[in-house]
Amino acid sequence: MKYTEKEAFDKVNMFGRGEPNDAFAEYFTGHSFLNPLTKPGETPVFLANVTFEPGCRNNWHVHHAKSGGGQILICTAGEGWYREEGRPAIPLKAGTVITIPAEVKHWHGAKEDSWFSHIAVEVPGEETETEWLEPVTDREYDELEG
Prior knowledge:
Elements: H1 6-12, E1 19-20, E2 28-29, E3 32-36, E4 46-52, E5 57-58, E6 61-64, E7 67-68, E8 71-84, E9 90-93, E10 97-100, E11 106-110, E12 116-122, E13 125-126, E14 129-132, H2 138-142
Antiparallel strand pairs: 1-3, 2-5, 3-4, 4-12, 6-14, 7-13, 8-9, 8-10, 8-11, 8-12
């Protein structure tokens, strides 16, 4: 379900919007928010609720790993997009789960007319790191339907 109004979205965003995602702002077009659900170092899996304002998306990026690694997105509220390089975009809504293997170039974010949240799960692996790449262009984004 699309949510254009922040107040209505906040009521259904069960894991909370969190704080402005300032540490990673340079890798996003628009504003995002981060609510860590686990503490790094206390568990081998880091979970965070990431909230995107309408039209916000992250840059193209790759989760590198010598073995294991990657990312899982568990969509919790609003509507968004996920796209792998060379493939059509996949619409996201509450209940959608996306499994992203290591070494796959991709991006994700909100639809232009809806707030959106997902839980991001960093899959444990050996020698993992995220390589942030170029922004998703307005043309690439505006070509998406729905």
